[in-house]
Each structure stands twice: as C-alpha cells, then as structure tokens.
Amino acid sequence: MEVIPAAKQALMCFLISNLTFIVCFLTGVLGSSSELWALKYWGPALYFCLINFVLKYCYKGFIYEVSIRATGLGAAMAVGLYLVTFDNGWKVFGLYTVVLTFFHFSEFVAVALSNPKTVTIDSFILNHSVQYAVAAVASWVEWAVEYYFFPDFKTHFWISSLGVVMCIGGELIRKTAMFTAKHNFSHTVEFVKRPEHQLVTHGVYSLCRHPSYVGWFYWSIGTQIILLNPICVVVYALTSWTFFRERVYAEEMTLLGFFGIHYDEYQKKVGTGLPFILGYVPENRRQKIKERHWSY
C-alpha cells in the first residue's frame, strides 16, 4: 500500500470532481433554459457515472477505493457550494454540506500524511458508526421539517456563520493534534502499547490532553449551529459529551498503564480540554461510567 501516492490520488480526484461539478452547477454548461433544465441537474449524475467508469478502468484495489470516495466527496462539496448561492434555507444546508465533506476528506489526507502506517479506507470515517449515521440523518430531518414549516427560521445566516467559525476552529485543533502526535495518533483506543508509542505532551497537547476530541466535540456542535437546528444542537452537545466522557475515561486507563507516573504527572498539569470531563484520575474514579465504554 503506497500511502503518499494514495493521498495525492485522493487530492487529485477530490479537486477534479469538485471543479467539474462546480462548473456544471454554477454555469449551467449543459443548458439552463426551461426546456433543458433537467440536463443541468441530471448532468452531474451522468458525469459521476462517467468518472466512476474511468476510475474503475484505470485503478484497482485500494487506490480505486480511495479515488471513488474522494470523487464522491468532491462532488458533494460542489453541491454544497451550489446551494450556498441560494438566499433561503438551502444556503445553510449548503454550508453544512461543505463543512461535512471537507471534514471527511481532510481526515483521510491527515492520517495518510501524519501516520501512514495506519491509513485505510476507514480513515475517511464515512462508516464511523451506526450512531454517527443516525445522528446525521436526524439533523437532516430536523432541518427539513423546520424549513418546511418555518422557512424564515433558516435564514438567520449570521448565526449560521458562527457555526462555520466553530467548525473551522474545531478542524484546526483536531488536525493540529493529528500532525503533532503523528504515529502516536489513532482513530481507535489501543490496548496494547506499541514499541514506538510515545507520550506526546508538547504543542497543542501542552494545552489539553485530548485536543483531537476537543476539536471534534466543538466541530459536531458547530454543524448543528450551521443548520440552525436548536433541537440537535442540544442533543449533539449532550451525546458528544457523554461519548467523549466515557472514551476519555477508557483511553486514560490504558495510557496510565502504558506510561505510569509520567502520564499521572501529565494529568495533574494539563486538563482534558473538554468541559466538566476529568478523565481517569483518582478524584474521578467513582463516577458512573458504563462498562461498555471499552467497546469504543
């Protein structure tokens, strides 16, 4: 598996797909008159089928899987950019789509560049979990219902812009953490210490113990602020907080086992970065944590 070529391939497919679909949507290159309106919208679907055919012919295995996912994300971002040109509730959904697609694409590229030995198709985290998919669909449903019954409610674009800023900040924190940790970063909690595994306490890790979780926590809430989803803002905040509370607890149990007193001293100096989450520390070991936290 050649990782750097895969990262370059992902970037190339993402950009080409994005540019192709932007041209198609924004210029009506296939025709935008009333008689040919369908071509403007069916055209992108035909383009995607054609691109998939070319990719399938040219690439095999891992490179193809990377290419088709990057192409799909690039096309989806182009759709989002097109929706951003609207002056109604579709605008906020377009902003959300741009933020979401960039997150998944950049996640793969960041892993491929910072920790190439661990990169897989799952590094796109498109198949993160059933709960993640349900949460995403729930946010789309709330947006659709509220846009249908209260269309003006989805036009508070200045509030939506705050969500965009929040997502950008979350992305920067998370990606900085990934490049700082490098081979020490993983999408899953590791229970066996690798020989090269080191305790990272410099850079952004000197500010908080779990910057990648901090970034994702605020990014997830920001996506719902973008959509102007008051219900999902609360639900996402509570659900994300509960998830990271248990994940941090489980992870720090292993880190204390890996690094012993060194991690204990690190805990005393630096907080988790997540609100009201202490982690696995003496004064917090009696908290009610579900046993199944080990499965995360």
UniProtKB/TrEMBL annotation:
It is an enzyme of class 2 (transferase). InterPro entries: ICMT_MeTrfase, PPMT_MeTrfase. Its EC number is 2.1.1.100. The chain crosses the membrane at residues 12-29, 41-59, 66-86, 92-113, 125-143, 155-173, 216-238. One of its GO terms (cellular component) is endoplasmic reticulum membrane. It is a multi-pass membrane protein. GO terms for biological process: methylation. The keyword Methyltransferase applies. It is found in: Endoplasmic reticulum membrane; Membrane. It comes from the Eukaryota. Keywords: Endoplasmic reticulum, Membrane, Methyltransferase, S-adenosyl-L-methionine, Transferase, Transmembrane, Transmembrane helix. It catalyses: [protein]-C-terminal S-[(2E,6E)-farnesyl]-L-cysteine + S-adenosyl-L-methionine = [protein]-C-terminal S-[(2E,6E)-farnesyl]-L-cysteine methyl ester + S-adenosyl-L-homocysteine. One of its GO terms (molecular function) is protein C-terminal S-isoprenylcysteine carboxyl O-methyltransferase activity. The keyword Calcium does not apply. Belongs to the class VI-like SAM-binding methyltransferase superfamily. Isoprenylcysteine carboxyl methyltransferase family. Catalyzes the post-translational methylation of isoprenylated C-terminal cysteine residues. This is Protein-S-isoprenylcysteine O-methyltransferase. It comes from Papilio xuthus (Asian swallowtail butterfly). The gene is LOC106119613.
